[in-house]
Amino acid sequence: MTDRLKNPIIQVVILGLLICAALLLIFGHKRPSASDRVIVIDETDMAQLIGGWQRTWNRMPTREELKGLMENHVREEVLYQEALAEGLDRNSVVVKRALITQMEMLAEGQGEQPVITDEALEAYYNLRKDQFTSPATVSFKQVYFKEGQDPERLTDLKDDWNLQGLDYETARSAGATTMLSAEMKEMPEGLIDREFGEDFTAKLEALTPGQWNGPVPSAFGWHLIYLDSLIPPSPLPLEAVRNEILLQLQYEDKEAAKEQFYTELLQQYEITYQGLAKQLVNE
What are 97-149's pLDDT values in tens digits? Predict the structure, then answer.
């Protein structure tokens, strides 16, 4: 054992441990300073607590409720200061994400938000009118046939019905019983597809109004369709989509403000790339 202690490497390790122990005894664990331990609750804090309560409960807090809010606020501040002293904020993805979100909110509020004029709304609408359209609406009657039917036989049946000018009630008796809607009037394509299966409306768009068509396949089987009308998608008037455009323009303004804020900040930093990151930047 004595021979091992004479080993220079072991002597260096022991010396390092002794120095660490001495530093811990002298300085102890890093704790918050006296200034860090001062927590001030002012009128601004109280106004924020009351405002938060009002937004949640739509009323003023009682004195007991306000006292509880204040005590909880003090608790959070104490724990927050202690967490900072322990270095828990460093390398924390959650903390980093929260701080980034706060900075982005700060960037959105930089300066006055521009007033969005009627001219700006109209210009946005005219440039993107194809994005603001009503869905296609279809009116039709259908006769259902189960899977396994011969499509050629159904085609012949459809031709016979057109030659005879067969009315719907008579034609309906030739089909199978089903829970599917027998008739739809001016229904949007989304609701039709929800009942008959995906892309069913797209198949109806190729049919001829005022006669029997088909057979048309669906997720359930086959259908002979009497197409009453098909109204294609059409642009919605500006007044119908004004609020939607306003929200979109406000969003774009906020995104532009955040981008400008970041660009100005980035100019104040020197970014150094190494290894793979450097290769990516130089590509």
Answer: 777 777 777 777 665 667 888 888 889 888 888 888 888 888 999 999 988 88
Place of tokens 């642009």: 235
Spatial contact of 70 and 53, defined as CB atoms under 8 Å apart = no
Provide the Cα torsion 71, 74, 78, 79; round to 10°.
60
Rounded Cα distance between 267 and 269, Å, is 6
φ and ψ at 58, to 5 degrees?
60, 35
Q: What is the CATH number of domain 133-235?
A: 3.10.50.40
* CB neighbourhood size of 245 (10 A): 20
As given in the structure block, the two tokens for residue 62 are 């009682």
61 phi and psi angles, rounded to 5 deg: -75, 150
Is residue 175 a contact partner of residue 228, using CB atoms and an 8 Å limit? no
Give φ, ψ of 85 to 5 degrees: -65, -35
**pTM, entire model:** 0.49
Residues 226-251 have a mean pLDDT of 89
The amino acid at residue 108 is E
Q: How far apart are CA 144 and CA 171, in angstroms?
A: 10
Q: What phi and psi values does residue 262 have, to the nearest 5 degrees?
A: -65, -40
